[in-house]
Amino acid sequence: MVQKAKILLVDDRPENLLALEAILSALDQTLVRASSGEEALKALLTDDFAVILLDVQMPGMDGFETAAHIKRRERTRDIPIIFLTAINHGPHHTFRGYAAGAVDYISKPFDPWVLRAKVSVFVELYMKNCQLREQAALLRLQLEGNGKAEAGEAKEPAGLLAELSARLAAVEEQAEALSKQLGDESTDAAAVATAAHLERKLTGLRRALDALEPGSPGGQAAVN
């Protein structure tokens, strides 16, 4: 069973956090609260998040500074950040948000449907990446097991490859559908780029699997 994605909500005002939870509850994912930049950074030390909704105007460490810390960390630099702000200071203010690493910048009051749709895109991309990592880990462990196990104790290489190929095909189909959806809806460039990166990873894994097939160049040696 695929675990739920975690979404980090960062705002110093409890009523704003409550409103975000009400809007995003329909996505049926795990919503994590943080009432300050410091609290958000602490949560990011131990948990993986699909996307961060980050308020800009906060006392102490504001959203820009918090984002800068997030992007400097190896563990968290690739997590998408959506800035939320109640004040529009013009293009310069918006540019500062993108320069800090945001993938989107939404002014309050925002349309709940739009916000939920944007967050759902990044949740889907996160899920696809998790599936890809699981498939790669399974392939690595199973091949290592076949090499070390005694005869008859491990699954036949051909059967193993067929099973992994079928699982990968399911992920490929979902990723292709998501990329088409993003292209049709002209979604944010950052989301489209992330989807394209995912498809390139899937293509690489598919080539690796094909190379292990008996009869392919080097395939027989790889599975024996």
TrEMBL record:
Q: Which Pfam families match?
A: Response_reg (PF00072)
Coiled coil spans: 161-188
The Response regulatory domain extends over 6-123
PTM sites of type 4-aspartylphosphate: D55
Q: Which InterPro entries match?
A: Bact_response_regulator, CheY-like_superfamily, Sig_transdc_resp-reg_receiver
Keyword vocabulary terms for this entry: Coiled coil, Phosphoprotein
- The answer to whether UniProt assigns keyword Chaperone to this entry is no
What is this protein called in UniProt? Two-component system response regulator
**Organism encoding this protein:** Streptomyces ardesiacus
